[in-house]
Amino acid sequence: MAVSGEFLGKMDTILQEKTLWEQLQSEARPVVLYGMGNGAEKAFAECQRRGIPVSGVFASDAFVRGQTFLGYRVETLSQVEARFDDFVILLCFGSFLPDVMAHIDSVAGRHPLYAPDLPLFGGGIWDREYAMAHRNELAEAYSLLADDLSRKVFVHLFAYRMTGKLSYLSSCESDREEMYRLLRVGEDESYLDLGAYDGDTVRELLDYTGGQFHSVTAVEPDPKNRRKLLQKMETFAPGFSSDPRFLLIEGGVSSSDGEERFDNAAGRNSSLSENGKLQVRVYSIDSLTKGRRCTLIKMDVEGVEARALSGAVQTLRLSRPKLLFSAYHRTEDIFALPLLLHRLQPEYRICLRHQPYYPAWEVNFCAWCE
């Protein structure tokens, strides 16, 4: 209760400041969007819904070719600066590349820049009403976190999401290897990679363990991603296709076995979706681990993390594998996922980490039983 009260006090302090959307509604300066694509479309729609006028769209110089976007001629930053003496920027794309993040910081040094936190999947927008509606759940999730850094990350993420200020993100970053250290990942892991994409996280595991492992089961529903996975695995794990320790499962993960629609139009962000054109096989974690050793599970499953956890009741109870799962695809993930895990298996210790990324992507929970 005392820990929950600690968060509520911090939350109330943060909410004394204007939220991002309140700030934009009170702005006298022009508001322009930085970026093109899905993020800009979502930001534009939210601005329209809240009566916030948008005065233009710009992109990095190399991407400006006289095109239009959302009815605006896409400009360079210098062209926007020639039109307006002062203006406010909404960052509408994401990146983890150091040079791109440094450029964003440079732009933010010239003009007020905010990065709205918009869900990749589902609904819900971080504003004052949403925060107050989920006040108790936020405080309860905060109380489950196992260390001071996790609680700092949680508070800073909340502050960023309420204000859109990137400084809150850059002040709570850590490298990805720290999660492997927290989980005490070793050389004898039986690794279940859910949302294996092109094998990037399999390679990450092998790099960390010096190529040592007990088994790797990679689950990926997107045919294009599976082809990339097969190609890239041959480069960093030659002979894997004939190695019985490797298993590639074509399909997705859900709360139970069956078939679901899958949208593979978004590349890396392909996901299970009622509007998807593909019909894919899906498996529960309990089904995937039945009869198999499992010590480590990674979940980056584009918004179905809650469903994946819900299908892992027996695995969490009997095998108690170490867990690494995304916490940023849906607005509620930051509080709903730790609360769900605690209900399913209260013995898990839960930590939260954020790797360098603008906006608040690459936010992950890692959890383990002592």
What does the model show?
- The structure is a single chain.
- With 370 residues, this protein is of the alpha/beta class.
- The protein starts with a helix and ends with a strand.
- It has helices at 2-14, 20-25, 38-49, 77-83, 98-110, 128-133, 135-144, 148-163, 167-170, 177-182, 200-209, 223-236, 285-289, 305-310, 313-318, 333-344, and strands at 31-34, 56-58, 68-69, 72-75, 88-91, 113-114, 190-194, 215-220, 246-250, 252-253, 258-263, 271-272, 278-283, 296-299, 322-326, 348-354, 363-369.
- It has 16 helices and 17 strands.
- The protein folds into two domains: 2-170, Rossmann fold (3-Layer(aba) Sandwich); 177-326, 3-Layer(aba) Sandwich (Rossmann fold), CATH 3.40.50.150.
Task: Break the fold down into its secondary structure elements and pairings.
Blueprint: H1 2-14, H2 20-25, E1 31-34, H3 38-49, E2 56-58, E3 68-69, E4 72-75, H4 77-83, E5 88-91, H5 98-110, E6 113-114, H6 128-133, H7 135-144, H8 148-163, H9 167-170, H10 177-182, E7 190-194, H11 200-209, E8 215-220, H12 223-236, E9 246-250, E10 252-253, E11 258-263, E12 271-272, E13 278-283, H13 285-289, E14 296-299, H14 305-310, H15 313-318, E15 322-326, H16 333-344, E16 348-354, E17 363-369
Parallel strand pairs: 1-2, 1-5, 2-4, 5-6, 7-8, 7-14, 8-9, 10-13, 14-15
Antiparallel strand pairs: 3-4, 11-12, 11-13, 15-17, 16-17
Compact overview of the structure:
By secondary structure, this protein is of the alpha/beta class.
> What share of residues is helical?
25-40%
Span between termini: 23 Å
Main sheet properties = 7 strands, mixed
Task: Give the overall form.
Answer: globular
